[in-house]
Amino acid sequence: MNSDTINHMAAAIRAAILAHEADIESLDREIGDGDHYINMKRGCEAIATISAELAPLSAADALNKIGMKLLSTIGGASGPLFASFFMSMGKILKTTETATIQDIALAFESGVQAIMQRGKAQAGEKTMLDVLIPVADTFKQLAGQDKPAKEIATILKTVASEGLESTRNLLATKGRASGLGERAIGHLDAGAKSCEVMIHAVCDQILA
Ligand code: ADP
Ligand code: MG
Ligand code: MG
């Protein structure tokens, strides 16, 4: 993985988020404050504007810079959470010159753990973590078994979709929806949706 790959993945993520405007926007309107799509779009555009600055950097430094950029551009609850994810991923990758798929899986896991720490949240609270935690666990397991990248990508897409669907019948105990009680049941979480969209976008690039 190098900064070219990162810029390529960032462009794929941006296109996928823009293509899912309607779903992401309506989910946060149903049980949040309706700004999640705007926040995601702002973050994606900010990364696109620094692609030339990212190009000469190592993967680790590019991820760290992405995190810092997101911290200063996306508002809301999700901004600092995504920022922690990328900064933590960058920190872990720093220790490996050429990252293997196992290194990337471990870095992804540490990014997810950083979100858990920052948001003081666990699985089952109807947040983005209900997608990210099972994806991180499965990714680590499959990378550890030396599965081919395309096989891993196919499985992770399914795990992400199942994680998203799992948020439907959960009560929200973190974030804005936590004040809604039973009213949140039956709705998917917006942050879980955007994570599913992003994971699908990255996996689709690996499968292409
Ligand atoms: P805000 O809620 O401030 O308007 P966004 O709409 O951008 O921010 O993001 C909302 C999403 O952030 C939620 O759908 C949820 O997935 C995620 N989220 C909120 N609080 C937490 C938390 N403490 N831990 C993990 N994810 C969270
Ligand atoms: Mg919101
Ligand atoms: Mg908001």
Automatic annotation (TrEMBL):
Keyword Cell inner membrane recorded: no
Gene3D superfamilies noted in UniProt: 1.25.40.340
Keyword tags: Kinase, Transferase
Record-annotated DhaL domain positions: 4-204
SMART domains: Dak2
Enzyme class: transferase
EC numbers on record: 2.7.1.121
InterPro entries, per the entry: DhaK_L_YcgS, DhaL_dom, DhaL_dom_sf, Dihydroxyacetone_Kinase
Domain of life assignment: Bacteria
Single GO term (MF): phosphoenolpyruvate-glycerone phosphotransferase activity
Keyword Transferase appears in the UniProt entry: yes
NCBIfam families the UniProt entry points to: dha_L_ycgS
Protein name: Dihydroxyacetone kinase subunit DhaL
Organism this protein belongs to: Methylophilus flavus
Gene behind the chain: dhaL
